[in-house]
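Sample pair:
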Amino acid sequence: AIVFGLFRERLGDPFLLGMLGVLAMIGVGFLFATAIGFVQIAPRSTGDELSKAFVDSMSQGLLVTDAKGRVVYANRAYADMTGATSAADLKTVEGLLSDVPEASVTIYRLASGLRD
C-alpha cells in the first residue's frame, strides 16, 4: 500500500486492479484451503480429556466397541476384570463368554437381540 501510494503516477490504475485481483484470488484460495482442512487456524484437540479421565477413574469396567464389535476403548477396571495385560488381550464380553459352553447359547441370543 505504501509503495503504491508513493509511486501511483508511475504504476497507474491497471496495476492497482491487477494487485487487487491477485490478493482476492489468494484470499479465496485460503478460504477453500481452510474449509477442506488443508490449513488449520487453531490446532484440533485429539479427544476429550475430561471424559477420558472420568472413564479411567470409574471402578466399574467399561468397554467401548464400534458397530462391527471391535474394541475401541476399555478402562483399567475392565482390563483387570477380564485379566487382560495389554491392549491386544482385550476381548468383548461376547468373546470372553463364548468359550464357556454353558453360556455360549445365552450369549448368542443376547447378542442377536441387541443387534436387532
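The first helix runs from residue 2 to 6.
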